[in-house]
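Entry 14. Structure prediction run on the chain below.
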Amino acid sequence: MTSRRKLRELIFKLLFEMEVGEHDAEPLLERFIITNEIPVDGRKFFRSLVRGVVREIRAIDGIVEEYAEGWKITRIARADLTILRLAIFEMLFGLSGNEADKPVVINEAILLAKKFSGSEASRFINGILGSVSRDMKNKSKTVGRIAGDNVLKK
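Output returned:
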């Protein structure tokens, strides 16, 4: 069995490849699963997160722009943006109706940032995700306005 941490790392790599190479998600997703020998027991989680990020990318990017004060989305490093997209999707939408454990998601995002971006990026990502998490907990209208009020009803 592959750990969720390892799967998130592979999901990050796939989403990053899609971002920088502007690839179509589905063919790349299935090829990536085979190439990286993702075990059967991790494929549902893997597919759900990748497809979810792709499906909700506009709402997620709106949240990133709102919370990354002074930063246009086009100026955020692609690796950092990919990490934020993955974490925000998981925090807001969860999987199969299950709410994600926000501190775990934030910690995983920080680890990804330290591994693939750097210490400055990890602080930037932590700040954004911490604010999103806090506003979700407080049922902030900012998150609901951008992503849809249904994400706050969880």
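The domain at 4-147 is CATH 1.10.940.10 (N-utilizing Substance Protein B Homolog; Chain A).
Filed with the rest of this week's runs.
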